[in-house]
Amino acid sequence: MNILLLGSGGREHAFAWKISKSKLCKKLFVAPGNAGTQNIAENINLNINDFNEIKDFVIKNNIELVIVGPEEPLVRGIVDFFNKDLKLTNVKIFGPSKKGAQLEGSKDFSKNFMFRNNIPCGKSKTFNKKTINKAFKFLETMKAPYVLKADGLAAGKGVIISENIKEAKKNLNNMLLNQQFGKASKNVLIEEFLKGIEVSVFVISDGKNYIILPEAKDYKRIGENDTGLNTGGMGAVSPVNFATKQFLQLVEKSIIKPTVDGLNNENIDFKGFIFVGLMNVRGKPYVIEYNVRMGDPETQVVIPRIKNDFVDIILKCINNRIKEVELEIENRFATTVILASNGYPEKYSKGDIISNLEEKNESIIFHAGTKLHDNKIVTNGGRVIACTGLGNDLNSALNNSYDLAKSISWNNKYYRKDIGKDLLKKIIK
Questions:
Q1: Which top CATH class is 123-191?
Q2: pTM, full prediction
Q3: In the chain, N or C terminus with fewer CB closer than 10 Å?
């Protein structure tokens, strides 16, 4: 079948890499793609938020399946658009409805969904600029550190943690009155800080049933030892040693099953990924947030561990047959180290020529912020390359990631040198 994949990041390159191996894939298009996807698919210059433009391409090229990578088209309602258009009735699209996508698109919606369905999470309240004085008073009832979250989409950067009340009030003021994150911070959640260690759990659900994909841990801060600004993610590891069988059973029982049951009970059309960002607090899982797409860079360690035909999984989900899937998971470790442009997540240069883009043994290169310019691959974003390593243990996978990370070069390359090192020290309970 002809397949169209929407997106341009490392997540989409990992998807494309896996889709291209499927016996069900005849021709793969990626819109807009990057310098990595062009080697395994045809890159198409489409605006992924212009649904009519996508529709025209789909009809013209006999596309039978559309897979949506990033969150924005989902939140804008691309699935509803496709399902309502009579000219697209024969086209399958993978992703949740606009209402389902609110699990990520609105932190307030998401939080209330958790409350309604008794899903363990931190306490919180939502405020806007008209209720900022009430917000200040609510802050005073909380204990430090203080968590502020922009309600809308903010490219993974809409969360600020403040160490003291003065700083929290200043940040809240910037978010609500100075529109620090634009429309995304029109409403802001003040949330209880949960102390523990994070883990990402991924689910594919058809709205009634689900399968659980391998878990991962990502590293969000720009600096080593988890210091500095939040980013889209600087590395990831899968599996995760503190996510024991017992812990994951608890996650399924207290979070995943109630989430899917809640979607079903509330008649929310959902065929897609549920990415549950969790905090392990003394062995008990709490939801930090939902996303309705795969994580990036977690995809770059989760996808290489799945042995099944990825397209077959997606089709079964769309056809309400996800419970028929028996997942086969590679019993090895996968790690990824993100090579970023120096200055990210703030100001950084583009257009630097990248050299030595050659995979080594037991490693895979996934492109993110890259493009082809004058027959040379150049940097085109903050996060540029994901260096994924595989190994029989965590240490060997990390060595393979870092061997690759060291060999790829450009003028303004930056990467963290401590990805996964915390998990080597001890098994965290």
A1: alpha beta
A2: 0.93
A3: C
